[in-house]
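Q: What does the predicted 3D structure of YetF C-terminal domain-containing protein look like?
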Amino acid sequence: MDSVLRALVVYAFLLIVFRIAGKRTLAQATNFELVLLLIISETVQEALVDQDHSVTNAFLLVVTLVGTSLLLSVMKNRWPAVSKWLDGLPVAVVRSGQPDRELMRELRVDDDDVLSSARRQEGVERLDQIEHAVVEENGEISVVVRRKKGGG
């Protein structure tokens, strides 16, 4: 039972840390962030297993972590407020072609991030070609390009 409680506490702690870290943390992981994730997993491993390195304990921890993830998924589907708290909401960082610099700074999104998504999705090259850009719940940026007036 001690392992289950440790697993739940570690899961909750990591959930809170990554929620505070923001949407963009895992959406575009750099090499540095992948290394950091590996170090975190190694650090947390000792807290999970303590002195019990048995296969049974490992299976118990896996079932606990996966079960917690499944439970949270069910809760998110049943109660939208849980989903909002865990995943956040989409945030428009460009509206009517105007970037919201304060929101972009808060979300750690810059012009290059928006333009990179715009090039990938719509083939546009300049910020003034973008009508709307939204940082989605998963940290990806969705872009709607400006349409030319007069039927384009």
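A (community wiki): The structure tokens above were generated from the sequence. The longest helix spans residues 55-78. The chain has a mean pLDDT of 85.
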